[in-house]
Amino acid sequence: MPVIRATRYHDISCGHRVVDHEGTCQHLHGHNYRVHFHCEADALDHLGRIIDFGVIKSTLCQWLEDNWDHRMMLWKSDPYLTSLLLIDPSIVTVPFNPTAENIAAHLLTVVGPQVLPPTVRLVRVVVDETRKCSCEAVI
Length: 139
Ligand SMILES: [Zn+2]
Prior knowledge:
By secondary structure, this protein is of the alpha/beta class. The protein has 3 helices and 6 strands. The protein has one domain: 2-Layer Sandwich (Tetrahydropterin Synthase, Chain A). β5 and β6 form a beta hairpin. The chain binds zinc ion. Belongs to the PTPS family. QueD subfamily. Its EC number is 4.1.2.50. It comes from Bradyrhizobium barranii subsp. apii.
C-alpha cells in the first residue's frame, strides 16, 4: 500500500515580528501566508478517503481563520507585547518567537491533534511566508 496523503492549503494575512532578528524582521510587519496541511490515516474510509477535503477546511483552515487571520501575532515574551496590547487587545500571543519554522511546528504538533478527527494525523505542515520562502515541519 503506498503512502497516501490528503493535502489542502489555506491563505491568511497575519502580522508578526521576530524578536532579536538581525535585520528588518525585527520590525512589526506582516505576510500573506499560505499554509499547506498534509494528512494521513492508518486506513482509507469506506469511500476511499484519508479525510474529506471539506473536513480539513472546517477544522485546520477554520482554526487559522478564527485564531490568526488578520491578527498581529507576537511571542508572549516579546518586550513590545505589554505596550502593544494597550493599543490593540486583539493581538494574538503565542508561546514561541513567530518564525515560519515555529509557526509550522506549532500547527503540526499542537493545533493538528486538537482539531482533527482521531483517525487522521497531520504529518506535514508547510508555511509559505512569501512566494520565495517557506518552512516545513514534518513528523
Ligand atoms: Zn516576517
